Amino acid sequence: MAESPSPGPLTHQKTLARGQPPPAAMTENEFQRFQALFAQTLGLSFTSEKRDLLTLRLAPRLAALGLRDYTAYHALIARPEAREERLRAFDLVTTHETWFFREIRHFDYLREQASEWPLDRKLRVWDAACSSGEEAYSIAMTLAEVMGTHRKRWELLASDISHPCLQAARHGKYPLGRGKDIPQRHLERFCLKGVHSQEGQFCIRRELRDTVHFKLINLVEPLPLLSPFDMIFLRNTLIYMNPAVRTSIVTALTSRLAPDGILFISHTESLQGLGLKFRLLQPGIYCRDY
């Protein structure tokens, strides 16, 4: 392993800077406005217990912009032309917890499918909520081990709503501790250990990073035109949505899934009761059913 010379991934502040006075409490009326905005634009469902959390996470933006209260900030991000600031707010209030090879049995299944994939058919995979890239690179390592890194065999799209997360994912640099669940053979083949100024970090080799196409996509908005995918990963995302939004998102993704395509959700999520045509193969793994 060798040093990666470039700086580590960017981080995104979600709490108040040290010494900054606590913000004024968000009123119930203000909270309800943010509830409605985030439900409409993100599909997120915030209960009343989350008001203090939103107050804390959004406070730094009020201070940075010199706004007097949360009503003013809501008015700003609700404007159609304020897309950049709205995405910044969305990133502040959403959770991006993830790790490499999370729910390992899904990657065992992916490896089995890849090993039997027809030589004359490209395997197309979409990681639809990739966060900071750990899941996307876990998919890429699994596919590259079985099918190589040649782009004629497989392709991987990884998307998220967060600009900072996508930027970090493209860099592909992580603290060493984040690599504890990566199999040793993958660490040796696909990762570089930092030395000197990069000590304590590792990065994904460019050979593998180049196999992943990262793209900003909001799953609540109309999806871009995309050719059908054989597999779509949508893990640990639906749990934050209400049933109507879950149905809407999965229905939209189904339109981008091949007739015999596979949908991965987390072990703690389910499609039951949503009225969708999927057949359960294994926990968290569904096949599109007609």
What does this 3D model show about the protein?
The chain has 290 residues and is α/β, with parallel strands linked by helices. The chain folds into two domains: 28-93, Chemotaxis Receptor Methyltransferase Cher, domain 1, CATH 1.10.155.10; 104-172 and 206-288, 3-Layer(aba) Sandwich (Rossmann fold), CATH 3.40.50. It contains ten helices and ten strands. The strands form two sheets. The chain has a seven-stranded mixed sheet with strand order 6-2-1-7-8-10-9, with helices on one face. Helix 5 packs parallel to helix 6 (134-147). The longest helix is centred in the N-terminal third of the chain and has 15 residues, at 28-42. The protein is globular, with a radius of gyration of 20 Å. Mean pLDDT is 87; it is low at 1-18.
Name the features:
290 residues, alpha/beta, Chemotaxis Receptor Methyltransferase Cher, domain 1, Rossmann fold, 2 domains, seven-stranded mixed β-sheet, three-stranded antiparallel β-sheet, 10 helices, 10 strands, 37% helix, 17% strand, disordered N terminus
Write the layout of secondary structure elements.
Elements: H1 28-42, H2 51-65, H3 70-77, H4 83-93, H5 104-115, E1 123-127, H6 134-147, E2 154-160, H7 163-171, E3 173-175, H8 184-190, E4 191-193, E5 201-204, H9 206-209, E6 212-216, E7 229-233, H10 243-254, E8 257-264, E9 278-282, E10 285-288
Parallel strand pairs: 1-2, 1-7, 2-6, 7-8
Antiparallel strand pairs: 3-5, 4-5, 8-10, 9-10
Helix pairs in contact: 5-6
